[in-house]
Amino acid sequence: MDVAARDWGAAGPPDLLIGSDTVVEHGGRILEKPADAEEAARVLRSLSGARHRVHSGVALVLPGQRGAGGGPLVRSFSMTTTVEFDELSDRAIRAYVATGEPMDKAGSYGIQGPACQFVRGIEGCYFNVMGFPVHRFAVEVGGLVEGGLL
User: Fold this and answer.
1) Are 110 and 42 in contact (CB under 8 A)?
2) C-alpha distance from residue 90 to each of 80, 95, 106, 135 (Å)
3) Going by DSSP bridges, is the β-strand pair 29-31/17-26 parallel, antiparallel, or unpaired?
4) How far is CA 74 from the centre of its chain?
5) What is the DSSP letter of 102?
6) How many CB atoms lie within 10 A of CB 1?
7) Mean pLDDT computed over 52-65
8) Going from the N-terminus, what domains does the chain have, and what CATH number goes with each?
9) Vertex 36, ends 31 and 41: CA angle to 5°?
């Protein structure tokens, strides 16, 4: 909403602003990006042989359209995908952490990289685990277009 409230000058605001964030949840705890390699290894050990959930929230803000409260029109949704990891050896965890990849990833892994080998299965949207539920986003934007809002 802060971005939507900006002064866009003579060009006016964009037709659509998109905001999104993804978190990993396991055992009732949100697993943030790890602070260091030790924390990344600890998180991966906790996910070993277990199921966890990946939640993404997406907001579609139309600055040029007015919503019920007079502010920009907002459409939002969330999506959850369940991921099951295989049993991970300490050696595999150490090798993965040594790549540096876990350091900027919620849950200490990226399904689209070398950690894909850890995933036994998923229930739901693969792209949601990557960080953006592409299909649901396309459906939502299509609805805005069909409704004449975009």
Assistant:
1) no
2) 28, 9, 20, 36
3) antiparallel
4) 19
5) G
6) 12
7) 95
8) 21-55+78-139 (3.90.950.10)
9) 65
86 is known as an active-site residue: no
Q: What DSSP assignment string belongs to 103-122?
A: GGSGGG--TTTGGGGGEEEE
- pLDDT of 25 reads 98
pLDDT of 133 over the 90 cut:
yes
The single residue of 21, 36, 90, 104 carrying the catalytic annotation is: 21
* Mean pLDDT confidence for 71-79: 94
The model's confidence at residue 67, banded by pLDDT at 50, 70 and 90, is confident
Q: What percent of the chain has pLDDT over 90?
A: 87
Q: How many residues does the chain have?
A: 150
Residue 19 in tokens:
């905001």
For the purposes of burial, counting CB atoms within 10 Å of the CB of 133, is it exposed (0-12), middle (13-18) or buried (19 or more)? buried
